[in-house]
Every structure is written in structure tokens, then in C-alpha cells.
Specification:
Oligomer: single chain
Shape: elongated
Largest sheet: 2 strands, antiparallel
Distance between the termini: 15 Å
Strand order of the largest sheet: 1-2
Number of helices: 1
Radius of gyration: 20 Å
């Protein structure tokens, strides 16, 4: 699960413009591996599961912590996406 700041209150066009989820088709993966083998290229596997956790934010972004986590009136400044 991902922590989304007020995700239930987001509106398309105002808070976000599109959504994208990269999905690799198994036939496409096999084709790329076959082409790499035919060209005597090396294949390297990279896990990008946490790529968005370490991205720097360009804007100042604040959020309220989830209920029950801290005292009321506290906000968090997010520094990494």
C-alpha cells in the first residue's frame, strides 16, 4: 500500500492529469531477451520498485499525518516523493 495525501479528495484535471502503470507483456519480454541473445548482448535485471521513493520534490508539499499517529495540529513537510 502507498501513502497518498488526501487521495480520496483528488480530482482529475486539477490534481493529476493521467495515470500510468507500466506492464510488461510476457511475449514482449521473451522477444527482447531473444533479440539480446541474438546480438550477443548482456541482459541485466534492475528492480525499480522503490524508484519513486527517492525522487526530490520541486514544490513545497505538506500533509497531515494519518489519524492516531501524532497530536492534532501537526503537519509533515514531504521532502522526497
Amino acid at each position: 500500500a502507498r501513502l497518498t495525501a488526501k487521495g480520496c479528495a483528488q480530482k482529475e484535471g486539477r490534481d493529476y492529469f493521467d495515470t500510468y502503470a507500466a506492464v510488461a507483456n510476457s511475449v514482449l519480454v521473451r522477444l527482447i531477451i531473444a533479440l539480446a541473445c541474438a546480438a550477443l548482448m548482456a541482459c541485466v535485471h534492475i528492480d525499480v520498485k522503490t524508484a519513486f521513493l527517492y525522487g526530490d520534490l520541486k514544490e513545497e508539499l505538506y500533509m497531515r499525518p494519518p489519524k492516531g499517529l501524532t497530536k492534532p495540529g501537526i503537519v509533515w513537510e514531504l521532502r522526497k516523493s
